[in-house]
């Protein structure tokens, strides 16, 4: 920047104006006041002594020069402090954003992907890798990575990274290696930040630099250590959620098997929950449901008739008893926290769109969308499979019968989605 450009920028920024104002009031004004006092009371007495007068003027000029130099030094220091504060704020914002994403991650790979991207954002490294153990005693393997061509870079330097990784895992502290090199083949520096995960498993962040002389300042290392702590907790939570989902799925399967086992041999209702779940899933995706309501719909479809386990098998075709199965199913499921949302879908799957259904006579949007989808899938499967008192009908006729109930028994939008699923041939399986 030219000298005129520097002077122009001196007053073009709020920070410069604030620094200059402080400098002017704290330095220029007192210096000017001192000069006025000297000029009024001292210089007249030195008028006969020209050398003394010139010396005094030189002192004033020197003080002014030093004062101006101090201004530019102060301006530089303030700018450096502000830049560092902005960098710290950016790192803090990155960590806070990662914390929010990590807390909502549903599986290990989602946690690792978020952590790798955040580690790369916290530094100017060329790539970032998250390494995890597959089990106790097993070696650490790359779970996720981020950056510029991370896979080839890791493969070329795997032996070198392994040496740093062993040292970091042995000491339990961040470990660094400076190679003094740069370029495509060999990184200039490598950092390894170890993680300790619940259950005795271990993990680590690995970050290679590519620029000559590049390193990892202490503030970046501190940020990476904070990220490693957040990621360790997130990995533990993801593993716990995975275990809960696994338990949830297996218990659901056990209940569905128990419901089928209660039926007589050759009962046409056998397999009904699984068929309804498959069709409801297709309709839900046609309606572009998010993953969470889709999962809720899936499990509610499998368990929608679970209330029949509370009804004597000889009374399954008693209308009064049949009307109680949504409420009985709701009571069974709502006591389990993981199934409370599913229980609500089960409770309302026999409500009618016009409000004439049961058990609470809800109508329209008062009925959960998942329950409206389940109602259509339930009736469709019953129509297309024979029962003791009636034969099965074809797919086309079943769709027509359901369309005739649109707006009265069924949600018209759900009925339209069923039609599109059938027209595409998604029911062929």
What does it look like?
The protein is 61% helix and 9% strand. It has 429 residues and is of the alpha+beta class. It folds into 3 domains: 3-100, no CATH class; 107-234, Beta-Lactamase; 263-423, Orthogonal Bundle (Hypothetical protein af1432), CATH 1.10.3210.10. A 5-stranded antiparallel beta sheet has the order 2-1-5-4-3, sandwiched between helices. Helix 4 packs antiparallel against helix 7, helix 8 (272-286) packs across helix 13 (369-383) and helix 12 (340-347) packs across helix 13. The model is unreliable at 1-8 (pLDDT under 50).
CATH class categorisation of the largest domain: Mainly Alpha
* Strand arrangement in the largest pleated sheet: 2-1-5-4-3
Instruction: Label the structural class.
Output: alpha+beta
Shape label: elongated
Give the name of the CATH architecture of the largest domain.
Orthogonal Bundle
